[in-house]
Amino acid sequence: MSSILIKAGTIVTVNNNGDILNGFSLAVENGKITKIDKTENFSEDVFDVVYDYSNYVIIPGFVQTHVHLCQTLFRGLADDLELLDWLRKHIFPYEFSHDEESLRASAKLGIYELLTGGTTTILDMGTMNHQQVVFDELISSGIRAFAGKCMIDENDIFPDFKEDTKKSIEESYSLAREFHNSANGRIKYAFAPRFVLSCSEKLLIETREIQKDFAGSLYHTHSSENKGEIKAVKEKTGMENIEYFNSIGVLGNKTILAHGIHVNEKEIGILKETDTKISHCPSANLKLASGIANIPRYLVENISVSLGADGPPCNNNLSMFTEMRLASLIQKPIHGPTSMRAETVFRLATIEGAKALGIEDEIGSIEEGKKADLVALDLNNPEQPLIVDKSNIYSAIIYSSSSKHVKEVFVDGKHLVSNGKSLVYDKDDIFHKGKKELNKLLKRVANK
Ligand code: GUN
Ligand code: FE
Known about the structure:
By secondary structure, this protein is an alpha/beta fold.
């Protein structure tokens, strides 16, 4: 791979000191940041390519620790419902009706939106059928991802959408064998039992056992999102959701729980003791009327919190800017104006996401030796602060910026977005193909 020099206006490093560097540049070789130094100390001629981003702010790519690429096609088709009705009436029937082509179209649209919005790493909860297709798209798109087939072996909500326990486990195992650490380690496996209400105890426990066979893989599920859900979990198991997960031994530092809204004191203690990670999805939590997770409390307890947009039909966007803004704003009326400062939220969106995935040695900050997963933002617009310096740079990003300010995106040093345009996907092409596949899918749903 060629050597690259990136001349930056400002670099928001997100290193341990929180350094913000003005007038510095980055050298990238073989996909890694090899040197960060004052721009005048580099000689341009020794590089194969030089990018002049001296008007831009360079940040680490965002890390979203909970998304559903398979749901992108369903955006705007499942609004104004609570979780269980949302799943029953729309999401489970739609996911059940995916074929390979509709799933491919859905994944492409999702990855397109994520990359052009500055998200360079995702943890994706896949779907039950055709998950191989999602892996193909993750690999060819250039995005960094953990993903896995969604596992469902019980389903009172929409009984057609489930499969045999043994099949679910065997297929997950074989996908993990094929895709864990593929694409030079850019793609990793995350076992994905959907949630307690759609999984047998045997499935939850055996999945944990097989997950241990794949070093660096994750256990990814939903927990404690909705009051009706936790009531049903209590009826099923006799326990609160996190208490139940603990009792069957599936928690730990390789387990990521999406949501964690309705939890009691004992469960907070369990999360802390087991080092289990929470993925906070503020838009989805508001839109599905689920509630507001007590994130400031988690942070005080040193419980890992990172951010995700969740699925397009419960958000209805995949923008990390929206999640960062809401993650900050929703806590302020409850816990006070300084409860979720812009810098804190920015760390959740970058280095804390990397830590949750266990890859903080590779990504999440801009430091020598780390992978070149980089985003260049244009903060020179009338809708942003007129003066941006170290004192308000996080404010400018969290409170006044959006995906439209993302200009350049690199993953592993590979240029994936240029001047705001995807270098991977043709926008019109994926839009029209997505529409066509959605129409076909809706016909299949109607005919079932
Ligand atoms: N719980 C189980 N499945 C889902 C899902 O697809 N989205 C959300 N938000 N919660 C879930
Ligand atoms: Fe989800």
